[in-house]
Design goal:
heterodimer, A: mainly alpha, 10 helices, globular, B: alpha/beta, Rossmann fold, 6-stranded mixed β-sheet, 4-stranded antiparallel β-sheet, 55% helix
């Protein structure tokens, strides 16, 4: 029983990170019907920003407490990553908005590879650890061990998702986003600044991924190619939940977290990718709209 | 013989490919680069077939290469004794290609239902799965891979395979199967509605493409003498994409250029080490932004175009085809039998609870011209879509010559003798006027895929027939002089005429015209009505036409059915319809009681 709860907690921790990244895929798809294949690598960049800022802050003469260091690192990662995403959108994707969809997808793949290899060339391939931003502690509850990072990840992710859901459903900006996703051509006629909303969506998606990046980096090692696997798993989460659907991305994230943690119980752990991608194929073929998505009719 | 000239010239260079290395004029490094260039040309051209010509979006090409590489290596390592190596090598490469084409089938099937980005994900996922499976099979070395293959690939072998690939792909592209492939790129629904069996085309194209990717894999494995799953990841697939888009989609010349440039440039950048993997993707992004159609665009080097398909070849054929109107005459208006040609009963269709057509009935007798009219949104086009298999009706039956059409795929319905045009013109815009008409012969082609790929005499004879028939039809419609121009360049009226000509190339008995007068002024409409009458008599057709302009149907139709909000509100002769109170109400609104 205790073991099952332990597994469940681990699944929630990993799943939270997947969900946070999946939100970025789903928001961009929702608004542009474009798959931003560079998103996983943007997530990777956020962990490196956290790494350098964290090292600098802890090594500085300021002697800040744990909470300020954590918050400052988080803020730096969020702002840095959001800026990066906005720049990528403006420079690489915007010129292609009228081009065939194929061009945008290939460009996104190219941007992703560029980020990976640029990081590799400048920082190097070796895996790194984030410095301990918060003191490592553990809570023992009836035979179940919860590390502080784990608790932090699960709670903070849930809060961020709640916040995003509120932004999209309750604010003017959120309404503008939904308007653009329904009809890119009519929205500007109603005074919605489409270009700004699209850039904002990219930046917002990247910010959320950066939150995930910091939380992930506090628990695991980081390297230039980490964004490929994690990005894919997050993307699968988005598809499973129903791409374009924000709540679907959250559900999908937790499902993929469960797949990651529970697969090794049944199969050798090297089969994890196989299971995840097979899940993706099954969904694409039999339920391409995912768990929460709605089908779209073809028009002649 | 002219047809083969380019390849014969190329073949004459083969001894050089054998002798240069032997005489020591090419060192090992240069040989290796040359072989990579060749292998990349095969990969690029094969992916171009799917992405460029078919317009589908496959991004996991390395998966097929992996299957071919492992397949061929297993043949030379385990199946045959090592000393047989050089003898069985071609066989091993072909075996790898066949294994890869089976894998291509696995990807073709999901492409029936999904396309665009979704298909991209399917192929990427497939790439990942292949890699993951190979990593988990200990028998083929797991993550460490296979090693110990002899260096069986030589510059000469690569050269032969490059020529073979280009030869087969060119033949395929210029066959009617290849034209069907391009029609899918232009407009998949319209392709099916001029009788292209889109599923068949997709299966053939994916299998052919992955076959050559597998061949490239087999050659690659026997250059490097060592393969592991990581060599065939997304990175490799992206390389192939770069080469395709660098050279130009829909151009074999482009593939040759793209593959050569990319391979050579990467070799030159070798001293930069890691940085060349930064430059490659950057190049791809810049390419997409500034030159999305690549170096060649849709253009093709003359050498890779069969002589009869070059503009001068088409003009020559046009001159000899001539317009002999009597030759194609279908024998006047068919005699009106007492059994209906088309009988639609209780046709009903819902879009997600929205009732588009409700209990629609129609009987059409041979030789009639029937009109379906109604205000915008009345469900007229939906009726055509239901008859031609674009949608499957919620309820009801469509009997054509006594046979049920409901549930049959669109291309079969067209083949059985129905053809249609579209409310908004749906030509294959980037293809030539001639190709637009030839594609409509898809269902009548008798030569096989093999004959097409090898360019056999029988296939060429039949192609000649198809071309002659298509040119005659074009002349009949006064479109002959545009034959080799892309359809998008035609004036509006000519585009409408071409659409009718294309429909007629399907050899229909029943012609469905969807708002043929849309966008025309009154004098153009009068000319159009004469044209429709002439077409009917000349080709011996029965016609059903949709209109919302009263004057069109009144002038030509013998019987009229009026639709409003998906329901039939009146039926009868033009005179009856004009007086019918419910029709007046639907068109002009309710009478106001003073």
């Amino acid at each position: 029983m205790g073991l099952a709860v332990q597994y469940l907690l681990n699944a929630l921790q990993v799943g939270s990170v997947y969900a946070l990244i999946a939100l970025g895929y789903t928001m961009v798809y929702g608004i542009l019907t474009m798959i931003n294949f560079a998103h996983g690598d943007i997530f990777m960049v956020s962990t490196y920003i956290a790494f350098f800022v964290g090292v600098a802050l802890l090594g500085s003469a300021l002697q800040l407490g744990a909470v300020p260091v954590f918050l400052a690192t988080m803020l730096a990662a969020v702002l840095g990553t959001a800026t990066l995403a906005a720049v990528i959108e403006r420079v690489a994707y915007k010129p292609l908005r009228q081009a065939p969809r194929v061009s945008a997808v290939i460009t996104a793949l190219g941007v992703g590879l560029f980020l990976e290899n640029f990081t590799l060339a400048t920082i190097g391939p070796e895996p790194r650890f984030l410095p301990p931003l918060v003191p490592v502690g553990r809570i023992v509850l009836g035979g179940v061990v919860i590390s502080t990072v784990q608790a932090q990840t699960i709670v903070l992710s849930a809060l961020v998702m709640l916040l995003l859901d509120t932004i999209v459903r309750r604010t003017m900006t959120g309404m503008a986003m939904r308007a653009v996703s329904w009809d890119k051509f009519t929205a500007p006629l109603m005074g919605v600044p489409v270009d700004r909303i699209i850039t904002l969506t990219f930046a917002l998606g990247a910010s959320i991924a950066a939150v995930g990046g910091v939380l992930y980096g506090m628990a695991y090692t980081i390297d230039p190619y980490m964004g490929i696997r994690i990005g894919w798993w997050a993307f699968i989460s988005a598809v499973v939940g129903g791409i374009g659907n924000i709540r679907g991305a959250m559900i999908g994230g937790y499902i993929l977290g469960a797949v990651e943690i529970f697969t090794p119980i049944l199969l050798p752990s090297t089969y994890r990718d196989f299971v995840a991608f097979s899940l993706l194929l099954v969904f694409l073929i039999f339920r391409p709209t995912g768990i929460l998505g709605r089908p779209v009719a073809m028009k002649v | 013989m002219r047809r083969w000239r380019g390849f014969l010239i190329a073949l004459a260079f083969l001894p050089l490919a054998v002798l240069l290395p032997r005489w020591g004029l090419l060192n090992l490094y240069q040989q290796q680069v040359l072989m990579y260039v060749g292998i990349n040309i095969i990969l690029t051209a094969s992916l171009n077939l799917v992405n460029g010509y078919m317009g589908e979006f496959s991004v996991g090409h390395a998966a097929f290469m992996a299957v071919g590489a492992y397949g061929a290596s297993l043949m030379t390592l385990w199946v045959f004794p090592r000393e047989w190596g050089p003898l069985v090598f071609p066989l091993a490469v072909v075996a790898g290609g066949l294994a890869a084409s089976l894998a291509g089938l696995v990807v073709a099937i999901p492409s029936f239902k999904t396309r665009g980005d979704y298909l991209a994900i399917v192929t990427l996922a497939f790439n990942m799965i292949v890699k993951s499976v190979l990593e988990n099979i200990d028998a083929v070395g797991g993550p460490r891979g296979l090693m110990g293959m002899s260096r069986l690939t030589s510059v000469a072998w690569v050269y032969i395979w490059v020529l073979l690939t280009l030869f087969v792909l060119r033949n395929y592209i210029y066959s009617n199967y290849g034209r069907g492939t391009q029609a899918i790129r232009e407009d998949e629904t319209a392709a099916a509605l001029v009788s292209v069996n889109t599923r068949q085309v997709k299966v053939m194209t994916f299998m052919l493409s992955s076959f050559f990717a597998g061949v490239a894999g087999g050659l690659f494995a026997h250059v490097l003498q060592f393969i592991n799953p990581r060599s065939f990841g997304i990175l490799k697939s992206t390389d192939v994409l770069v080469m395709v888009y660098l050279g130009g989609i829909g151009s074999l010349t482009g593939s040759v250029l793209g593959a050569t440039t990319f391979t050579v440039v990467l070799e030159l950048l070798r001293p930069l080490q890691v940085w060349r993997w930064v430059i490659g993707p950057l190049l791809l992004v810049l390419l997409m932004i500034f030159r999305p159609r690549g170096m060649m665009g849709l253009r093709e080097l003359k050498l890779l175009v069969p002589p009869e398909e070059r503009p001068e070849g088409i003009r020559a054929a046009l001159a000899s085809a001539g317009a002999d109107p009597a030759r194609r005459a279908g024998g006047g208006v068919p005699a009106g039998g007492d059994r209906p040609l088309l009988a639609v009963r209780g046709l009903t269709h819902y879009f997600d609870g929205l009732r588009a057509v409700w209990d629609f009935n129609l009987e059409v007798f041979p030789g009639e011209i029937i009109g379906i009219i109604g205000p915008n949104g009345a469900g007229k086009t939906t009726v055509f879509n239901l008859i031609t298999g674009v949608y499957r009706p919620t309820a009801g039956s469509v009997l054509f010559r006594g046979q049920e059409l409901v549930g049959r795929p669109a291309h079969e319905i067209i083949r059985s003798g129905i053809a249609r045009t579209f409310q908004t013109i749906r030509l294959f815009k980037d293809l030539s006027v001639l190709d637009n008409v030839r594609i409509a012969r898809y269902a009548r082609v008798r030569y096989s895929l093999w004959a097409a790929a090898l360019g056999t005499a029988a296939a060429r004879r039949e192609e000649e027939e198809i071309r002659r028939g298509a040119l005659e039809l074009l002349e009949l419609f006064h479109l002959g002089r545009y034959a080799d121009a892309p359809a998008r360049g035609l004036p509006y009226g000519e585009q409408r005429r071409l659409e009718i000509a294309r429909a007629l190339a399907c050899e229909p008995v029943l012609l469905l015209l969807d708002e043929p007068a849309a966008g025309m002024n009154p004098s153009e409409i009068d000319a159009l009505l004469d044209h429709i009458r002439w077409v009917r008599e000349h080709f011996g057709l029965t016609v059903v036409l949709i209109e919302h302009q009263m004057r069109v149907v009144m002038g030509i139709c013998e019987r009229i059915t009026v639709l409003d909000f998906g329901a039939t509100i009146a039926e009868g002769s033009p005179a009856e319809i004009q007086r019918h109170p419910r029709v007046i109400e639907a068109y002009l609104g309710e009478a106001v009681v003073a």
